[in-house]
Amino acid sequence: MRIAITDANIFIDLIYCKLLDKLFGIDVEIHTTINVIDELNAQQQAAIGKPIRKKLLTVHLLEELNMPDVVKANKRLSDSDKSVFYLALKLDAFILTGDGVVRKISGFQKIEVHGILWLFDQFIENKLITKKIARVQLKHLMEYNKRLPVEDCEKRFLAWK
């Protein structure tokens, strides 16, 4: 089974849309880091607690000393981003993120990366949600997350009719 390393913004968006549980229904092993969990507010951490207790989400504690120089030296990455990037390299995993800097650096390092729209596609493909629910939830998310690529969202709306 493939491994995905999830960034905080993915958890935040999924919790906002009440779709977090769907993340654990796709055919991917989900991992994250304690640094990512620390970026979440108390309510979001509580939501993440359930999949952690059920062993659906693996949380890693990484020591900065073990990170390669390419990760440590990058000033554009937050500590949380560095932990996600490093764990993806360590586990030969792909990254789930909406962060533009992480996406860009992942491309340079030849690490596969996907975002929230890819997850919506996976949820539909795996019959975890209907296209109608996807449309409603994505419109709802677009009101909250202004960084979503509008053109790509519009393409999804057309495809999900």
CATH third-tier fold name of the largest domain: Rossmann fold
CATH superfamily of the largest domain: 5'-nuclease
Helix-strand makeup class: alpha/beta
- The proportion of residues forming helix, as a percent range, comes to 55-70%
Dominant shape = globular
- The N- and C-terminal alpha carbons lie at a distance of 31 Å
The CATH architecture of the largest domain can be named as 3-Layer(aba) Sandwich
What string, H for helix and E for strand, traces the elements in order?
Answer: EHHEHHEHHEHEHHH
Count of domains: 2
Percent in strands = 5-15%
What's the alpha carbon Rg, rounded to whole Å? 15 Å
Nearest-integer average pLDDT: 91
Kindly report the spatial arrangement of strands forming the biggest sheet.
3-2-1-4-5
Poorly predicted runs are: none
The CATH class of the largest domain is identified as Alpha Beta
Main sheet properties? 5 strands, parallel
Total of DSSP H or I helical runs spanning 4+ residues: 10
How many strand units?
5
